[in-house]
Design goal:
Layout (H helix, E strand, L loop, with lengths): L4 H6 L1 H19 L30 H16 L4 H15 L27 H5 L1 H9 L10 H4 L8 H9 L5 H5 L1 H11 L9
């Protein structure tokens, strides 16, 4: 069951403290840091707001890079495949894994179509891929909006699509579940070769 936003926000500091603890363990070697040759960019792309769909086996280089980066950031926080699956499915639905510069829906932007007016950060922060992923997970200091770990700290007990919807509050909640198989495929395809990103 989702918790109220006020209750979620009240335990944000505890969750952040837990994340810091996981990050500390990572620094001690339980998680391998990102390889030096791996350079993640903040490139942007635009698209019309349509329902043409996401083509898993026709992804362009930007989509592949963004999928790998989501996995790297999730790993960097010491989180697991389920967290990555929820995060990837959400980014597929919201942006087809492309980092959007202009607002395509009111003031929304970035991988998760986060809205500055709804507390997700500034115009630039919602388009900054690392900050956008952190905010979605509930681990972004810049964001006032509750994320996954705020609203569903027991996300393993949730249907992944329902966990995504708890964060996004979409008018089309069924779309997240539709993309779970694609997200699981992306994890299986790339996770073994992507190192944790901890910067």
């Amino acid at each position: 069951m989702p918790v109220s936003p006020s209750a979620a926000l009240s335990r944000r500091h505890l969750l952040l403290a837990g994340a810091v603890g996981l990050s500390s363990l990572a620094a001690l070697g339980s998680i391998v840091p990102a390889r030096a040759e791996e350079v993640w960019t903040e490139e942007f792309m635009t698209r019309p707001e349509t329902r043409e769909g996401f083509l898993l086996d026709a992804m362009d280089e930007w989509q592949v890079e963004n999928a790998k980066f989501v996995i790297a950031v999730v790993k960097g926080h010491g989180l697991d495949e389920q967290a990555a699956t929820i995060t990837l499915a959400t980014a597929i639905v919201e942006s087809w894994l492309r980092n959007y510069e202009p607002a395509v829906d009111l003031d929304s932007g970035g991988l998760f179509q986060q809205r500055p007016s709804m507390g997700w950060g500034t115009y630039d922060e919602v388009r900054h891929k690392k900050r956008a992923i952190d905010a979605f997970l509930g681990l972004g200091d810049h964001s006032e909006a509750p994320g996954l770990l705020d609203l569903a700290p027991d996300y393993h007990e949730w249907a992944p699509g329902e966990a995504a919807q708890a964060v996004q509050i979409s008018a089309h909640p069924e779309r997240y579940a539709e993309q779970i198989p694609a997200a699981q495929t992306l994890w299986a395809r790339y996770a073994g070769d992507v190192a944790a990103y901890t910067d």
